[in-house]
Design brief:
- This protein has one helix at about 40-45; strands spanning about 1-5, 25, 75-80, 95, 100-105, 120, 130-135, 140-150, 155-160, 165-175, 180-185, 195-205, 215-220, 225-235, 245-250, 260-265, 270-275, 280, 285-290, 300, 305-310, 320-325, 335-340, 350, 355-360, 365-370, 375-380, 385, 385-390, 395-400, 400-410, 415-425, 430-435, 440-445, 445-450, 455-465, 470-480, 485, 490-500.
- With about 525 residues, it is an all-beta fold.
- The strands form eight sheets. An eight-stranded mixed β-sheet has the order 2-1-11-8-13-6-5-3, with no helix packed on it. Strands 14, 15, 17, 18, 19 and 23 form a six-stranded antiparallel β-sheet that branches. Strands 16, 20, 21, 22, 25 and 26 form a six-stranded antiparallel β-sheet that branches.
- A hairpin with a 5-residue loop joins strand 9 (about 155-160) and strand 10 (about 165-175).
- The radius of gyration is 40 Å and the shape is rod-shaped.
Length: about 525
């Protein structure tokens, strides 16, 4: 079945699974199928997503809107694609013996159905305008076209099939008051590796063979198929507190334009969004974006942690745009944002993926589709919070007395600390006597602990003898192999004052008390 739609807004196409001739049915307003709502977008995000291998082999016409070559004035005749001419019309050929195609601009008082230019089927002769495209047997292809009369009601036929004899799919008859839009589908039969898509003039108002049958917005091929990839930079491992830059690229590997294209990504658990980092770095609408909603193509929702971009030509603060296929836009469109790794992901992986929701509008209703990226995985280095507390049993001693130091270290995590050691060299006026440890070894002023589990503590007791008068400051400093999240508590010191031994006026060196003569 083929449907004829009055052009009231952007047309949507009817999906028709038939390779046999199609017949016309009643007119249907295009706006009857315009329900492109947020509900549809939400449903699209739950749909199965294509990956690169799942996209059908791409089929698409070249220059379906007749936008090339550019008409300098009101209209012009150009050679068809079979002619070796720099001004030839890309993609299109004609059966006219002069090989000329007539292209109009809206300066003639007729608006284009899409874009800025359109073609007149009846150029200098009654002829057929066509393209031959490589196809795969069994492949389901969709078509769409806009037709309009010039002086009155013009009629043409659509033929699809093998180049040696394409079959008529139906006829289109329209007056000169508005564009008529038609759509359908075609399944490539067995053995047919090249398919012709052709327009054949039947009649034109006024009977002039060089006047009639305007054509525009022509599509024949595979539907849109958006593939999303995601990368993280640096690739890792990174430390807690480091920024990770995510880039997502959406490429349309299908034949038709993807419509209402929207990308969403949720800030991964254990990270925080870096304000002001939203950017479209490649493709339509490139540039920096704000975090606020509604003022440009992107926003960050702090309540949900969701980042949103509306992508493609014509994207706004509320609506997604159109993403051309990779023949027109080879690199697609790329966006980026940044997050900062938090304490809770230390020693773990940050895993994140994004999704693109879009619509296939080759049917009677917009068909919501979703493509999800693969996971971007970033390793985060372990992190710890080591601390040390040092105390002494006495803060004032005399020469010859013993001072006992207690050194306690702790690991507040979140990961186990490895290679832990405490530097604790005694001052010059204190002589080492002995040490006691809960773990590890102590030698030459270094307490070698090794591994200290998250939440664990360890203690070192050092006994030393005061040997000289003076004020002593003894410092203990702890360190390990992992990033320390709070270096401010990695050292502690205690001050001990060493005084002279008490003076005894009754005792002199060498004196002997209690000796009688």
């Amino acid at each position: 079945m083929m449907r004829h739609i009055r052009r009231m807004c952007y047309p949507v196409a009817a999906l028709v699974a038939a390779a046999v001739p199609l017949t016309l049915s009643g007119a249907i307003p295009a706006d009857a199928a315009s329900a492109r709502t947020e509900v549809a977008a939400t449903a699209a995000q739950r749909a199965a997503a294509p990956d690169p291998a799942s996209c059908p082999e791409q089929v698409a016409l070249v220059n379906g809107g007749f936008e090339k070559p550019v008409v300098a004035g009101t209209w012009a005749s150009f050679p068809d694609a079979s002619q070796n001419n720099p001004n030839a019309v890309p993609g299109w050929r004609t059966t006219a013996t002069d090989h000329m195609i007539e292209v109009w601009s809206p300066r003639m008082g007729v608006p284009a159905a899409e874009g800025a230019q359109f073609a007149e089927l009846n150029a200098n002769q009654v002829s057929t305008l066509y393209q031959d495209r490589p196809t795969t047997p069994g492949q389901k292809l969709y078509w769409r076209l806009s037709h309009r009369g010039r002086l009155g009601t013009d009629q043409m036929a659509l033929d699809i099939g093998a180049p040696s004899g394409p079959a008529q799919q139906g006829t289109m008859s329209d007056g000169n008051g508005k564009w008529g839009t038609y759509h359908g589908s075609y399944t490539v039969p067995a053995g047919q590796t090249t398919t012709r898509f052709a327009f054949r003039s039947i009649s034109a108002a006024g009977g002039n063979a060089s006047v009639g049958n305007f054509l525009d917005d022509i599509f024949f091929g595979t539907p849109a198929c958006v593939v999303v990839t995601k990368t993280a930079s640096p690739q890792g491992p990174v430390n807690v507190g480091a920024e990770i830059t995510y880039r997502l690229t959406a490429v349309n590997k299908g034949g038709d334009v993807a419509q209402n294209v929207r990308l969403t990504d949720k800030v991964p658990a254990g990270t925080t969004y870096v304000p002001g980092s939203l950017r479209v770095v490649g493709g339509p609408g490139s540039g920096a974006m704000t975090d606020q909603a509604g003022d440009d193509q992107a926003e960050f929702d702090a309540a949900t942690g969701v980042i949103s971009f509306r992508l493609g030509d014509g994207a706004t603060g509320t609506a997604g745009g159109r993403l051309a296929n990779d023949t027109t836009l080879p690199d697609g469109t790329t966006v980026e944002f940044r997050v900062k790794a938090g304490r809770s992901v230390a020693g773990k992986q940050v895993v994140n993926s994004g999704a693109v929701a879009y619509e296939n509008r080759l049917g009677p209703e917009p068909e919501p589709l979703t493509s999800t990226s693969g996971d971007a995985v970033t390793e985060v280095n372990p992190a710890v919070d080591l601390s040390v507390v040092k105390s002494a049993d006495k803060t004032e001693v005399t020469v010859g007395e013993t001072v006992t130091y207690r050194v306690t270290i702790a690991n507040a995590g979140p990961n186990d600390a490895t290679g832990v050691a405490v530097k604790d060299a005694l001052p010059a006026n204190l002589a080492f006597l002995s040490s006691t440890r809960s773990t590890g070894t102590y030698a030459n002023g270094t307490w070698t602990v090794g591994t200290l589990a998250s939440g664990a503590t360890a203690t070192l007791i050092i006994r030393a003898k005061a040997t000289a008068v003076g004020e002593t400051v003894n410092t203990a400093t702890v360190g390990g192999k992992e990033l320390d999240l709070d270096p401010s508590n990695d050292s502690d010191a205690v001050k001990v004052c060493v005084q002279r031994e008490p003076f005894c006026p009754y005792c002199t060196p060498g004196s002997k008390q209690g000796t009688e003569k």
